[in-house]
Amino acid sequence: MNVAAPTSGRVTCRARALVAALSLLFAALACAQPQPSLTPAEQRAAAVTQVVLGILSYARWPVEPAQLRLCLVGPTEYADDLIKGTTQSTGRPVLVQRLLAGDSRIATACDAVYLGQLNQDERSQLFSAIGGHPVLTISEAGDPCTVGSVFCLRVSDQQVAFDVNLDSVARSGVRIHPSVLQLSRRRAVQP
């Protein structure tokens, strides 16, 4: 994608800030930085939290929520840090709650859904429920990112990366900054 060069100093400053912020996100994606006091599972959970918060910070909803509502659906392996709740780098609080896949509130009580292990019927029911609502979906379950999820995490001991389903981005009603989409493409072609 081509982006026009900014014409004012104010926009240039914003562009530099965006590049700096994206650099931080890219660094978090590059590898899970080991912390001596954390187990490998805790390190992966912390790295997943960084990546998820990074993704959420570059998403824009039609009406920006004052408090971002992240719902965890299904059994999750890496959501321990997310459950604690957090604040985005912008200062916006992130409220995290667990819901069942069949909960009728998902479409209206969640701005983003972090999907754990769900069977095919549960996934179908969930994606039917959020259809037509601006809900961003992030899947941790290692699926090939072809069925409904906008972002699909790839978690290993060395790094946390993600794939993007562009079809799902278009249907989600949530805008994603193009640099995040390009990052996914670059990472997909790197060995």
Automatic annotation (TrEMBL):
Pfam families reported for this sequence: DUF4154 (PF13689)
Domain of life of the organism encoding this protein: Bacteria
Signal peptide coordinates: 1-32
UniProt keyword list: Signal
The protein's name: DUF4154 domain-containing protein
Organism whose genome encodes this protein: Pseudomonas alkylphenolica
